């Protein structure tokens, strides 16, 4: 069993270490689901960010860790990877009995365990669409995390979008490469499609609207369909047609292969960052 009991409430006391964009996305999702702002504590060293949290959520964020953290049953680490170790030192003494959830990229649970003095750790790899409730988060739990702990994590992360558990921590590097960095790939394609439209005589506004709607609609169609992406692509690629001309050119230029290799580069960089910041 967990060392804390959160069975009486879907929203036990939660502490956020760091109050930036990802923390705000999770806090906003929790409040939309009914979590009282009074159950949320935020530690944020920057005054401007504390002011933004107050404006957005009515939460008076703390400039530094205090004994107020002792009531937290879940601690969410939303700090920059390079700041994690330093931030953990003053927090650890107050939160060793809590469940810990990290959304800091590249920091392994071994490092977190060493810095916080606990084994009840879940590591998450979210992405920026969480800011609009459309996120995708990969999750890994250490063996000491039980089913009740996982249910709480799913409630918290589920407030920002979808989630999936991986059974090996190393697989979070693949999650990083696909969905963590993925929004940037989408934005790059949106840039290219918008520029193509402008080059063909459309306005930038028209082109961007067409591109964004196409990505959104295509993604929704894929999500709802029982058919694979390959089959869906083939259905709109008539031999000799316009789509065929575009797809054939992309394949001749080995775009799929280059795209896969680019994501492997992201995976490798995730591994490098873990080695760098986990020291």
Automatic annotation (TrEMBL):
Q: What compartments host this protein?
A: Cytoplasm
Pathway note: Amino-acid biosynthesis; L-proline biosynthesis; L-proline from L-glutamate 5-semialdehyde: step 1/1
Documented EC number(s): 1.5.1.2
Residue ranges of every copy of the Pyrroline-5-carboxylate reductase catalytic N-terminal domain listed in the record: 14-105
One Pfam family from the record: P5CR_dimer
UniProt KW Nucleotide-binding keyword: no
What is known about what this protein does? Answer: Catalyzes the reduction of 1-pyrroline-5-carboxylate (PCA) to L-proline.
Q: What's the family?
A: Belongs to the pyrroline-5-carboxylate reductase family.
Protein name listed in UniProt: Pyrroline-5-carboxylate reductase
Q: Which organism is it from?
A: Comamonas testosteroni
| Name of the coding gene | proC
